[in-house]
Amino acid sequence: MRKALHLQKGWGQQMVFLGPCLLFFLTIVVTPFILGFYYSSTDWNGLDLDKAVWTGSANWKRIFMNDDKFWDSLFFTLRFTAVSVVGANILGLLLAFILMTALKTKKILRTVFFMPNVIGGILLGYIWQFIFTKGFNTIGDLTGISFFNLPWLGTPSTGFWGLVIVFIWQTAGYMMVIYIAALAGIPKDLIEAAKIDGARAPQLFKSVYVPLIMPAITICLFLTTSNAFKMFDLNLSLTKGGPGTSTQSLAYNIYSEALINNRYGLGTAKALLFFFAVSIITITQVWITKRKEVSS
Amino acid sequence: MQETSRYRLSTFILEFAAILLALIFLSPFYLVLTNSVKGLREILVDAASFPQVFKWGNYAEVWNIINFPKAFWNSFQITGLSVIFIVLFSSMAAYQIVRRPSKFNTFVFLLLISAMIIPFQSLMLQLVRVTSILELRGEIYGIVACYLGFGMPLSVFLFHGFIKTVPYELEEAARVDGSNPYGVFFRIVFPLLMPIIVTVIILNTLWIWNDYLLPVLVIGGNKDLTTLPVAVTKFFGQYTKKWDLALPGLVMAITPILLFFLSLQKYIVEGVTAGSVKG
Predict the structure, then answer these.
(1) B126 with B146: CB under 8 angstroms?
(2) Is residue B26 packed enough to be buried (19+ CB in 10 Å), middle (13-18) or exposed (0-12)?
């Protein structure tokens, strides 16, 4: 009797503490995820929510045999991720090194570089739409530098680089604060010792700094890779995937397949592939960089 | 002597370069701000010049078009309610998982962590289905429920890591004094979690406030609930760009979150760093 009461009490506590969290998590995340496996093989059109007919492998055939735009968007996303990850991390690390020196304006600079990161991608994209289409023209006319007079966002390559520039502008400050935290944790005498041993700047960077901040590099590469690969808001507000569909990211391709073409079933199938792609890429990346971490 | 002066010169050059770079970083804000008080023609002719006349009327017009107080209040309510309940439910769940490490609870924890990798686009279409079945669409509690679901994994994870460091002896003492488990959690443990609560609040506030796609999908047609980022998209139609309205709209949309950042920047930078390092 006593034991039963105790057990009941344990269950009560379990329900109260874990219940709400599980309720929302299972309803909002797990259920849709499981439903995705079903809907990805139907012709669900999003409008008639109940009339999703099972179509077997039709969606998958279509994606793998007859959907160049999906694969174009995959290659676009891979290119975008590669360039942005390298760019954002180099700039972030550079800013971190600069702000580690005894600058008078250090605090203000840190605030400025971090600031774009707190604004949402949708708004940042709109801001830069103005800068690229109006601001750059004017600056180009004033300075005569041809870089500013390119048809920004009007061609596939300027659209690509436009997105890269804004992504780096948004992310570099975030990476910077993580790198600063890591650099601040390096014991000073270690650097001094290396200097006394005659290490020059490049050597110091490669053999002392990089191995010691490898955990931070893992984190930063993970964050930038997964954010760049999942890029959507910026895509929507800066280029809308255009001109044409030349700058469509994977996430945007899924969005437009479902919400513009009303092919929810096909969109769900692509979304499932998207999930696998994200998982493979981020897990591989973490696995590779983790191996390079040294225990200090 | 020579050594120090050379060092100072190099620092000065570095400082100069860094400030230059900071100005480049800020220039988009400058251009948006100065052009937001110009007429449309002046914007199109010369976007770089300083405004000749300040047309504050642009702001008044936008204020009415997007019903700024309403949109702001919607964003504020949705973000506030979501964050409060995320903090409450995820800290409770993490506490239970740490203090009652059964097989089931460990499984729940692993499930939560694994879910962090799922991109939103892989869930959104089916979520539309789920939210309409449960009649959550177009309602404020509906979108808050969605944010609770999406906010759980990272928040539980952060609380989990922190609660592990809270000494169990404190709770035992309270339990001997006759407190029940709920009293122990809310009176003893919860106040000790303050540092990580701040981190969880900041991380969730930033993404929920800035979120675009979920409100579009879940609030959908209900114009009474339009959030601030969604309201501003009104000025960015496909064909016509009324920059004299779009730019003030942008300024109004980014001001609240910038003020939030500038007033709490120490906590935000620390919180974001802590969140990413542990996540």
Answers:
(1) no
(2) middle
pLDDT, tens digit, 9 for 90 and up, residues A111-158: 999 999 999 999 999 999 999 988 898 888 888 888 988 899 999 999
* Digit-coded pLDDT (tens) for B99-118: 998 999 999 999 999 999 99
Q: Does domain A67-292 have CATH number 1.10.3720.10?
A: yes
Phi, psi of A126 (to 5 degrees): -65, -45
- Nearest Cα neighbor of B185 from B69, B88, B52, B111 is B88
- Closest CA of chain A from B130, distance in Å: 7
pLDDT tier for residue A1 given thresholds of 50, 70 and 90: very low
Among A32, A123, A173, select the one facing B126 at the smallest CB separation: A32
Task: State the number of CA atoms in the 13 A half-sphere of B260 facing the CB.
Answer: 18
Domain borders along chain B are 2-57, 73-278
Helix (H, G, I), strand (E, B) or coil at B240: coil
Phi-psi group of B166: left, alpha or beta (phi > 0 → left; psi -120 to 50 → alpha; rest → beta): beta
| Secondary structure of residue A295 in the 3-state scheme | coil
In this complex, do A131 and B28 lie within 8 Å of one another by their Cβ atoms? yes
Closest-CA residue of chain A to B97:
A18
- Three-state DSSP state, A42: strand
Q: Do A99 and B18 touch (CB under 8 A)?
A: yes
**What is the CATH architecture assignment of B73-278?**
Orthogonal Bundle (1.10)
Integer CA distances (angstroms), B187 to A6, B174, B183, B193, in order:
23, 9, 6, 11
Read out DSSP for B148-176?
Answer: HHHHHHHHHHHHHHHHTTS-HHHHHHHHH
Report the residue of chain B nearest A28, measured CA to CA.
B149
Identify which of B23, B185, B172 has the alpha carbon closest to the alpha carbon of residue B91.
B185
Contact list, A181 vs chain B (CB under 8 Å) = 273, 277
- Interface size, chain A vs chain B, as Cβ–Cβ contacts under 8 Å: 258
Chain-chain contact of A32 with B123 (C-beta, under 8 angstroms) = yes
Q: What is the dihedral of CA B213, B219, B222, B225, to 10 degrees?
A: -90
Tell me the CA distances in angstroms from A136 to A143, A144, A148, A162, B44, one per residue in order: 10, 11, 5, 12, 12
Please check whether residue A230 is in contact with residue A251, taking contact to mean a CB–CB distance below 8 angstroms.
yes
Contact criterion met (CB below 8 Å) for A199 and A56? no
Q: Which 8-state DSSP code applies to residue A101?
A: S
What is the nearest CA distance from A272 to chain B, expressed in angstroms? 6
The interface predicted TM-score of the complex, written ipTM, equals: 0.90
Closest chain B residue by Cα to residue A112: B22
Task: Give the predicted TM-score (pTM) of the model.
Answer: 0.91
- Is the peptide bond between A243 and the residue preceding it cis, with omega within 30 degrees of 0? yes
A58 in helix, strand or coil?
A: helix
Check A29 against B115: CB less than 8 A apart. Answer: yes
Place of tokens 């676009």: A76
